[in-house]
């Protein structure tokens, strides 16, 4: 298990687990992309839910219903990113080569994406698109689990959202 996932679980007091009904091959075929191993490790520990009252995460291997919810949000976030790209000429959007790939959303409507700079998904970094301004993107050099760990352990507003993170919890849907 990824030690960063263990640190996230400890930070939010999560001792639960998930029993996936689907396998990653099924999910990756449906999405038409491979996914980072740290994301898969996180999803083997956490069901769909809300992290620290700020980040909504659908677990696509949890069940057919969760895969459907993930795909609905995935498609919606891709469409928003396409509209932003058309207006502001920002990041390419999946399935274009190097196009951003969504994986989560904040509770205010912002979106978390992977930026696939290489063909190795374990080298992908996270970018965040604010709901408040479609041309407001924050680029990191961090993996998905590193970003989530930063969110659940940050003091003040020193995190990708720029939010004061006072709640340290995980609430399953």
Automatic annotation (TrEMBL):
Q: Name one Pfam family in it.
A: SUKH_6
Superkingdom, natural source: Bacteria
> What name does UniProt use for this protein?
SMI1/KNR4 family protein
* Taxonomic source organism: Kibdelosporangium aridum
């Amino acid at each position: 298990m990824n030690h960063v996932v263990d640190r996230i679980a400890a930070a939010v007091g999560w001792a639960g687990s998930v029993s996936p009904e689907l396998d990653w091959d099924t999910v990756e075929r449906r999405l038409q992309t491979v996914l980072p191993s740290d994301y898969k490790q996180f999803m083997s520990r956490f069901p769909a839910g809300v992290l620290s009252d700020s980040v909504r995460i659908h677990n696509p291997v949890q069940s057919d219903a969760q895969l459907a919810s993930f795909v609905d949000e995935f498609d919606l976030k891709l469409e928003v990113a396409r509209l932003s790209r058309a207006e502001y000429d920002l990041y390419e959007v999946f399935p274009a080569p190097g196009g951003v790939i969504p994986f989560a959303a904040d509770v205010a409507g912002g979106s978390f994406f992977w930026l696939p700079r290489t063909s190795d998904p374990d080298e992908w970094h996270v970018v965040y698109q604010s709901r408040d301004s479609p041309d407001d993107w924050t680029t990191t050099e961090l993996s998905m689990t590193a970003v989530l760990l930063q969110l659940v352990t940050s003091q003040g507003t020193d995190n990708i959202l720029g939010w004061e993170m006072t709640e340290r919890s995980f609430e399953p849907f």
